Amino acid sequence: MEKYEQYQRVFDHFDSNGDGRICPVELRQCVGSIGGEMTAEEAEAAVVLMDSDGDGFLCLEDFVRIVEGAGEGEAGDLKAAFKMYEMEGSGWITAKSLRRMLSRLGERRSVEECRNMIARFDMNGDGVLNFDEFKAMMSPS
User: Fold this and answer.
1) Residue 132 phi, psi (nearest 5)
2) b/e per residue, 82-100, with b = 16+ CB within 10 A?
3) 3-state SS, residue 62
4) Average pLDDT of the chain, as a whole number
5) Backbone angles phi, psi at 71, to 5 degrees
6) What does the pLDDT look like over 42-91, one tens digit per residue?
7) Which residues, other chains included, contact 69 with Cβ-Cβ below 8 Å and sequence gap of 6+?
8) Integer Rg of the chain from CA
9) What InterPro entries would the database entry show (predicted)?
10) Closest C-alpha among 126, 128, 75, 121 to residue 99
11) How confident is the model at residue 114 (pLDDT cuts 50, 70, 90)?
């Protein structure tokens, strides 16, 4: 069986109501089914952080990204974090996508403030952050 088909089968199993999305309640149940523990608040936070389109649910692509990112250690964590901030798989973080993610995390910033944050780490001057620039931004000074 192809890897993607296996992911689809596992995703469908966790998607208990069959709507094609995993909600925080389903995520919590899935973590419990593999022996883990997750509070309702943790499940909500996890979905907010991993949800690529902002609809409050995990789609199959979010699920695959999470599963493939697991076990990659710190590099995988950075890639997962980058994907949370980037705009719809574009490969870069814009001021608008940074503002959207910060807003989800409860931190209100203007687009201009986000542009200034990006400018400090934008090594090639294109106005957006690629993964290498994001990695530099996340590294301890």
Assistant:
1) -65, -40
2) bbbbbbeeeebbbbebbbb
3) helix
4) 82
5) 85, 0
6) 888 888 888 888 898 999 988 887 776 655 555 566 777 787 777 667 88
7) 76, 77, 79, 80
8) 16
9) EF-hand-dom_pair, EF_Hand_1_Ca_BS, EF_hand_dom, EF_hand_pair_protein_CML-like
10) 128
11) very high
